[in-house]
Amino acid sequence: MKRILVPCDFSKPATNAFRFALDIAEQSRGVVYLLHVIELPVMYDSVLMPALSIENELYQDLKENAEKQFRKMLSKISTEAAKVETAISFGPIFTIINNYVQEKEVDLIVMGSQGAEGMKEIFIGSNAEKIVRTSLVPVIVLKNNIKRAIKNIVFPNSLDTEGQEDLMLKIKALQNFYKAHLHIVWINTPLNFNNDTNTRANLEAFAKRFMLKNYSIHIYNYTDGEEGILRFAEEIDADMIAMGTHGRRGLAHLFKGSLTEDIVNHGKYIIWTSVLKPDSELQKND
């Protein structure tokens, strides 16, 4: 976690994300990229030159305002322990972010979120949720200013096999970075019920397969998967929840949804996520 991108809209959640990213960069001796993306509507005019002139003036005003906001933010937060670079880009936010990730070889995105609920969640969703769904690299989402050390990481395990190789490599690296205890938990719901004996044996086999260390296994009974994860995290006083996501889009996302993105929208914890990569895709890259 040496090259960290923080999408920045100068809000309180974005400032919290910047502080958190600085802590990571200090520990990893890395760099933090603060990126402010400005999305503009397409401007049309019957006479081309006046329209271009207005656009250029607007771009310059917005850029100068963002630079001013960056200076204000950096004047209030000590950045001596890590290198910080700022950037301003115009365009679709999710395209710009993914392009920037590739250009700078970013290996982690850290962002703040206010979440989303109700009709807004169904039809719009939070920016954090969308970035989680489309990101090329792992994403950490937080809502508050986190001052405590990361010592307990919850890993809700569905025992799916597809995509686990890449996910577990990343989670083991995350656990090792923080020297944290990994709580592997199966949420036993009425719709996804399995007896404890079989589940515990499967979870132990999973841990052995990936040679996990410093971990414990839990089976938590609850009526709903999302609520079960959040209540379990609360009971063990977790510092972070780590989950994979299938990154569903379009109608697949609308009808099937995503448990990970629901947790991002509703949870108060630090959420680490990574889009699951099919094992066949990994084999192609070997």
Characterization of the model:
- With 286 residues, the protein is an alpha/beta fold.
- It has 2 domains: 3-112, HUPs (Rossmann fold), CATH 3.40.50.620; 144-285, Rossmann fold (3-Layer(aba) Sandwich), CATH 3.40.50.620.
- The protein is 47% helix and 22% strand.
- The protein has 11 helices and 10 strands.
- The protein has helices at 12-28, 48-76, 93-104, 118-123, 127-134, 164-178, 196-209, 225-235, 250-256, 259-266, 279-285, and strands at 3-7, 31-38, 83-90, 108-112, 139-142, 152-156, 181-188, 215-221, 240-245, 270-275.
- It has a 10-stranded mixed β-sheet with strand order 3-2-1-4-5-10-9-6-7-8, with helices on both faces.
- Helix 2 (48-76) links the parallel strand 2 and strand 3 (83-90).
- Helix 5 (127-134) runs antiparallel to helix 10 (259-266) and helix 8 (225-235) packs across helix 10.
- The model is unreliable at 116-125, 248-257 and 282-286 (pLDDT under 50).
Q: Given the structure, what is the number of helices?
A: 11
Proportion in β-strands: 15-25%
Fraction of helical residues: 40-55%
- Cα(first) to Cα(last) distance is 22 Å
Q: Any idea what the CATH superfamily of the largest domain is called?
A: HUPs
The low-pLDDT segments are 116-125, 248-257, 282-286
Radius of gyration: 21 Å
CATH class of the largest domain: Alpha Beta
* Main sheet strand line-up: 3-2-1-4-5-10-9-6-7-8
Could you tell me the CATH topology label of the largest domain.
Rossmann fold
Described by the principal axes of the CA atoms, the overall outline is elongated
Number of domains: 2
Mean pLDDT: 82
Biggest sheet layout = 10 strands, mixed
Count of DSSP strands: 10
CATH architecture of the largest domain: 3-Layer(aba) Sandwich
The helix-strand sequence is EHEHEHEHHEEHEHEHEHHEH
